[in-house]
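Onboarding guide, step 5: your first structure request.
Type a short instruction followed by the sequence, for example:

Predict the 3D structure of this protein.
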Amino acid sequence: MEFNLSAVTASRHHLIFGRRGAGKTALLVEAKRQLTAEGALSCWVNMQTLRHETPDRVFLYVLEEIAESIVTKQQEIKPESMISVMAVDFYDAVRRLLSASEVDERDVMRIIPQAQRVIHRFLQVSDLRLYVFVDDFYYLPRDHQPRILDMLHGVVRDSNAWLKIASIRHLTRWFQSSPPLGLQTMHDADLIDLDVTLQDPQRAKTFLESILLQYAKHVGVASLGRLFHAAALDRLVLASGAVPRDYLVLAGSAIAKAQRRQNAKLVGVQDVNQAAGDAAQVKLQELEDDMAADVSSAARTISGLKAVRDFCLEETSFTYFLVGYRDKEDSPHLYSVITDLLDVRMIHLIDAGVSDAHAAGRRSEVYMLDLSQFSGSRLKGGIQVLDFSGGKIVSRKTRTTDAVKTGNTPRQVIAILRAGPTLELKRLERVHGLF
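The system replies with structure tokens like these:
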């Protein structure tokens, strides 16, 4: 958190990516608090409230926030100065455009040089920095995103003003090459990735438990072992997909379930399983909210979830699966269903590159179905599942006496993952409404 905070408060444009619940908003809030304490100027816009607006009006709403912050600050510094007059004129121009029943694109483009000039001169004269925090950018339609970012970049260009855009990576199109629009990474903006994944289970376990322990200590509980069985803590990592907010919510729900069990002294694995099962409907609702900017995309993703769940639970009896590199390169339109499910935490990335035992150079990604989709009432016997034990990957069959396979070494982990079935992306062509 400290490293990310020092990065996001730097004088640089940033795209901050993370799944829902990864801590994007919390990071921006803390960055804004710290920068304000240092005397910097800042403004905040949440795109969820603007998701039904046109690109031009979205841009103008952000511009209005910038203009208002400049006018307010300049009035405090020197209300009779030329900069004050320019800032007020700029603010009034933006508000006039927003009050019109229809916004002419040419008028919006004309205001960009005026905005850039006011912002540049104000920051130069006042010796201040300006930070523009844009949260939940993914709510805007992807096709509109590069143009909005391009216009925002235009108004802060050559000034001590910095854009901090929080979004979900695979729901975001931050640059298009023809015509060139948006923010080009490594040139215009840097990336900050907040996701902690299941690719390194021990790291995820250590990180998540450190967060939970801080909450426990706040209420007088010195050790997580006084609340949870060790196996329950491992299962929490798996159930949450290593998403911090999901981890904390599931921990609280599991504690509540244990409290209702007679004579329960500690939270057990079944409490976590039941909490994960109860979370399934909530996750589906969040999926619809995340995709609200595009109803057809939401329907496609939900149908994609059903197809992947049927493949895992009904056809192959494996809760994890492989997607070949070559397949995703040949069918990027179908692979987008996988990335959408990944971003809304219905599947989780276990390994980004597992080699094929029989074909040199052939590699696959390995994904796991979210525990909410097969725990509780969905859990049945004979399903090959991944589990964690002491931070190590384990493979076992539910409700059987078959031997448990433990990934004590990297070679053993790879062998476990290779055993999973390969999901061919062409089967997603049957997803209703995909094309």
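Each response can be followed by summary notes, for example: The first strand starts at residue 14 and ends at 17.
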